[in-house]
Amino acid sequence: MIFFVAFSVVYVFFLLWARLMWGRIQPASDQGVSEYASFSVVVPVRNESENILKLLEDLESQDYPKSQFEVVVVDDNSEDNTMDLVTDYLDTSSLTHRLLSLGDLDLQGKKFAITEAVQSSKNDYILTIDGDCRVGTQWIKAYNEAYQIKKPMMVTGPVKMNHPDFFTKLQAGEFAGLIMIGASSLYSGNPSMCNGANLSYQREAFMEVDGYKGNEHIPSGDDEFLLQKIFKAYDRKVMFLKDQRAIVSTDAKQSFLALLNQRIRWSSKWKFHKSFFIKLLALFIFLNYLALFVGVIEGISNQQYLLVAVIFVVRWITLWYFSVPITQFLGIKNVLGVSLVIEIIYPFFVTFLGIASIFGKYSWKGRYYS
Description:
The chain is of the alpha/beta class. The chain has 12 helices and 12 strands. The strands form 3 sheets. A 7-stranded mixed beta sheet has the order 3-2-1-4-8-6-9, sandwiched between helices. Helix 6 crosses helix 12 and helix 10 (about 275-300) crosses helix 12 (about 335-360).
């Protein structure tokens, strides 16, 4: 019970701190920016035949001069007709584009796909997005304004999960919290999380830090490891783009097994981080929910019902209060019930993921990793 109370207190203050940091992040507003930087929009794809055309249509609809950006689609050995669809679409589109194939280079993996695209690019800025995502018409414009006004070397962006039912809304609410923690910790000077489905950086920064050199063997982490390297190399010149025009949306997982597989993949990279803050954050999250799990059981067995109920309600209301600004920003409504369910199931979920990330296996785009 002592650990339960102690970790709950730290948990509450951590969420309040994260909300405070989020509130201090100032958006890069349009101050009459007239200069258009040159972007390479990098889209690594593997077996994305169901989604890729929608993204290409979004990119063609960008409110940004087409002469100032190119679309680079890199095929990571797709086993479906993804590239046939891409080729047919781009042949008749107005997009400046390039098509690359890792199969021709005897390579595989998202990191190699992005590396090939960046190295072959002549544009000043890189924007990465996944093939199963959607963007609004001013996505590139929002990034351009951030670069022209704030002058960063790297910009991390917001990602929203589509949520047509309660199961997917749970994922959307949880993922929104991760986006907010990533943005808040970055603002505080302790970068932790970002998402490669919506990420941008100056090409020279990628080349200067040698891209993914040193973590090529890790299947995931094309986002967070690069964030750490650029943040360190360029004296914190990294920002989160708090702009609703920059939101990228993607579908949540439709089954519990698919969700578990995704979260095991995400969790598996935490042990490779060198940052003390990230390791401490991961350990705290695991121990916090383990303490909640054990504390509730012990409290009930000792008939300390009131204490358990009070602590749980405080945790729940704080989680909801923490979630309000990011869910409003992303357009996720009515999250009070979502916060309650997350607080109930997360002790089981996080405890399992903590163990599975060390010993478990996962699949990604038809490939299996351990």
